[in-house]
């Protein structure tokens, strides 16, 4: 009744000056409550076929192979593709999704880890009076609030400081940040505020003091991007979608439309990358959600199709956690070349990035030394001279390719708006391209709306607003205490499990082995400095992890946090996975040999990797000769040798299909030489590579 009275009172005054703040707040609360009730009702209607146990990857492949026809086939297992699959399956559409690598193996795991509307986009919208950019920011801020609600275990608000070194900038930046709050409206996470110089240094003591006049703090969201992507994909699987990683599209299937006489896309010929088995997946429509590879799939449909994506590389580095406070980020609004750099605490480390440079599309982008040094220089500009920013402190670095939508003739990626487009080809291929991580859900909704309309699919309305993701149900901020009390886990490990798996953390804890120590009772760590435990490897297989890299990079985030620690954990991960997946001893040996060269756990090796190992054992080979040796094994001719290519090579060698390759001999020789050496201790206090 109170809500109805508030609604009536606000309606009577017409929202004018007479409307009290009390009445408006009641109205906002009323609308929120109504939205929650509507979502609860929608969730109650949804069937969840796999509440307890997810189907295995083999079962998913069988579903893809044996289903006569799906309503929707999504190609691409990143955030947008997984979002499309979840949206489709919750509309009661028979849904399939294939990803040629692992879920979130591309750009979706290589972000800045922010859930944000985009402060710089709002600035551009205001300065250029660009309504489209303004609406993009408004939409993103709405999606930010939704994402924080549907995956509270994987995301949280983060205060970000904007230091000010000139007096005139203080009101300028304050006005901009306040506008950001106003655009968010009732979904503002927390109001921004101004700090004095003294207070700013108290909260961020590493900050450069010289000429500092104050700071402004605003709030955005932060998340574990790869785990968030995986949560979306697993949620789709629980609702009945047939999803499979390491399943690539070889070509699109087409048939003639009896009414128009035109050829229409009706599915895809797929290949299981792990076994090599090929099969057809038939569907009434196909959605292209392949991110930077959008144009490649569009050209499978039509060779004459023009490019709609202009890829841009964004490099990030990870440095030790002591470079930043535990709960305060930093924004550099104007770097030496006009870009924006974030400096953020994440997983007890510090992330710095990103760059923004045009690039070519590749499955495994490599961060360049120039980009790493650029980020380090910008970090030095904002930190106290007492803090020595060292190249040796870089524990990990990665590069992600943003699928920016642009005119093909444009070369300036920095001025491109990261908005998205949905297009449908003459043959019915639906393409969703562009956009940003934060807006994956609204992009998926728009894509499915367009798909349903174009293909005449009988479907329900969108149900993903407020739909809780994998692990969200049962999570509370104090869940980790129950894990400590019920299972005897270390506090740090329990906190990690709760924030990674949410309500599913108990499933991981149940699989944990007894340590044999007084404390902790269960939970053997993979590496001493990080809270990842062995049972997570077993659980990762249930989450469709197929390789050790899947575990190190995306089920856990060790590969993104410290490459040396990842290298140390690899043998045990391979051992656990090998036993569970019944890998032969030879296959395990081959993987270990490969990982000795792939020190950064990238999932591929280059001539640089091989050269580095050879130099360490005093073997020198001409660079051109080395390129020739790798080219023998590089089946897709991308200048890199992936783990599956190397496994195929070793299998062919064993079966006698090819004579022993020069690369295999080289790697075996290097491995034997390295194994004969005494183990070298790694001093992690200096960090990095």
From TrEMBL:
GO cellular component: mitochondrion
UniProt-listed PROSITE patterns: EF_HAND_1, EF_HAND_2, FAD_G3PDH_2
Domain EF-hand: from-to ranges: 585-620, 621-656
Enzyme class: oxidoreductase
Location of this chain's protein in the cell: Mitochondrion
Pfam families per record: DAO (PF01266), DAO_C (PF16901), EF-hand_7 (PF13499)
Superkingdom in the source lineage: Eukaryota
Family annotation (InterPro entries): DAO_C, DAO_C_sf, EF-hand-dom_pair, EF_Hand_1_Ca_BS, EF_hand_dom, FAD-dep_OxRdtase, FAD/NAD-bd_sf, G3P_DH_FAD-dep
Catalysed reactions, as listed in the record: a quinone + sn-glycerol 3-phosphate = dihydroxyacetone phosphate + a quinol
Cofactor needs: FAD
EC number: 1.1.5.3
Gene Ontology terms for molecular function: calcium ion binding; glycerol-3-phosphate dehydrogenase (quinone) activity
Pathway membership: Polyol metabolism; glycerol degradation
Keywords: Calcium, FAD, Flavoprotein, Metal-binding, Mitochondrion, Oxidoreductase, Repeat, Transit peptide
Biological process according to GO: glycerol-3-phosphate metabolic process
Keyword Oxidoreductase in annotation: yes
Statement: the UniProt record of this protein carries the keyword Repeat: yes
Function, as annotated: Calcium-responsive mitochondrial glycerol-3-phosphate dehydrogenase which seems to be a key component of the pancreatic beta-cell glucose-sensing device.
Similarity comment: Belongs to the FAD-dependent glycerol-3-phosphate dehydrogenase family.
Stored PANTHER family: GLYCEROL-3-PHOSPHATE DEHYDROGENASE, GLYCEROL-3-PHOSPHATE DEHYDROGENASE, MITOCHONDRIAL
Protein name, per record: Glycerol-3-phosphate dehydrogenase, mitochondrial
């Amino acid at each position: 009744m109170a809500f109805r009275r508030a609604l009536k009172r606000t309606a009577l005054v017409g929202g004018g000056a007479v409307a009290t703040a009390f009445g408006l707040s009641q109205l906002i609360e009323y609308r929120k409550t109504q939205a929650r009730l509507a979502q609860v009702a929608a969730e109650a209607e949804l069937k969840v076929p796999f509440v307890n146990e997810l189907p295995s990857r083999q079962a998913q492949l069988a579903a893809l192979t044996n289903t006569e026809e799906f309503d929707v086939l999504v190609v691409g297992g990143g955030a947008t593709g997984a979002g499309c699959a979840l949206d489709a399956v919750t509309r009661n559409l028979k849904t399939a999704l294939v990803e040629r690598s692992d879920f979130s193996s591309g750009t979706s795991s290589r972000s800045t880890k922010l859930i944000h509307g985009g402060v710089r986009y709002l600035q551009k919208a205001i300065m250029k009076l660009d309504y489209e950019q303004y609406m993009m920011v408004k939409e993103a801020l709405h999606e930010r609030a939704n994402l924080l609600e549907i995956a509270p275990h994987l995301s949280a608000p983060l205060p970000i400081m904007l230091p000010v070194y000139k007096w005139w900038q203080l009101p300028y930046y304050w006005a901009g940040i306040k506008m950001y709050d106003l655009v968010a409206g009732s979904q503002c996470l927390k109001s921004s505020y101004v700090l004095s110089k003294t207070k700013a240094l108290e909260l961020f003591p590493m900050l450069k003091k010289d000429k500092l006049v104050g700071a402004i703090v605003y709030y955005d969201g932060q998340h574990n991007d790869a785990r968030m992507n995986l949560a979306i994909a697993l949620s789709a699987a629980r609702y009945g979608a047939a999803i499979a990683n390491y399943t690539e599209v070889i070509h699109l299937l087409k048939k003639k439309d009896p009414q128009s006489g035109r050829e229409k896309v009706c599915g895809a010929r797929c290949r299981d990358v792990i076994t090599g088995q090929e099969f057809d997946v038939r569907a009434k429509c196909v959605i292209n959600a392949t991110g930077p590879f959008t144009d490649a799939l569009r050209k499978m449909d039509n060779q004459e199709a023009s490019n709609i994506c202009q890829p841009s590389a964004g490099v990030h580095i990870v440095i030790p956690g002591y470079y930043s406070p535990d709960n305060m980020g930093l924004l550099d609004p104007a770097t030496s070349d006009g870009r924006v750099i974030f400096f953020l605490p994440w997983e007890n480390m510090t992330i710095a990035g990103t760059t923004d440079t045009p690039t070519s599309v590749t499955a495994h982008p490599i961060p360049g030394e120039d980009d790493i040094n650029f980020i380090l220089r910008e970090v030095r500009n904002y930190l106290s001279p007492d803090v020595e920013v060292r190249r040796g402190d870089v524990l990990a670095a990665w590069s992600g390719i943003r699928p920016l939508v642009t005119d093909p003739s444009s070369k300036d990626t920095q001025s491109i708006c990261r908005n998205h487009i949905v297009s449908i080809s003459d043959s019915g291929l639906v393409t969703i391209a562009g956009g940003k991580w934060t807006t994956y859900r609204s992009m998926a909704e728009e894509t499915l709306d367009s798909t349903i309309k174009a293909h005449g699919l009988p479907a329900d309305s969108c149900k993903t607003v407020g739909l809780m993701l994998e692990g969200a149900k049962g999570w509370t901020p104090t869940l980790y205490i129950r894990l400590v009390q019920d299972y005897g886990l270390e506090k740090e490990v329990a906190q990690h499990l709760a924030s990674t798996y949410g309500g599913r953390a108990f499933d991981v804890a149940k699989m944990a082995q007894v340590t044999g120590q007084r404390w902790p009772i269960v939970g053997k760590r993979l590496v001493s400095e990080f809270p990842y435990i062995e049972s997570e490897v077993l659980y990762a297989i249930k989450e469709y992890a197929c390789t050790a890299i899947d575990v190190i990079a995306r089920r856990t985030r060790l590969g993104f946090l410290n490459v040396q620690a990842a290298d140390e954990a690899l043998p045990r991960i391979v051992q656990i996975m090998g036993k569970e997946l019944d890998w032969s001893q030879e296959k395990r040996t081959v993987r270990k040999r490969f990982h000795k060269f792939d020190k950064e756990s990238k999932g591929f090796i280059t001539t640089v990797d091989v050269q580095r190992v050879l130099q360490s054992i005093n073997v020198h080979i001409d660079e051109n000769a080395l390129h020739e040796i790798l080219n023998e094994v590089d089946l897709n001719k991308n200048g890199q040798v992936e783990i599956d290519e190397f496994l195929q090579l070793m299998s062919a060698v064993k079966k006698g299909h090819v004579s022993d390759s020069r690369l295999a001999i080289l790697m075996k020789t290097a491995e034997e030489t390295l194994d004969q050496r005494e183990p070298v201790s790694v001093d992690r206090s200096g960090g990095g590579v």
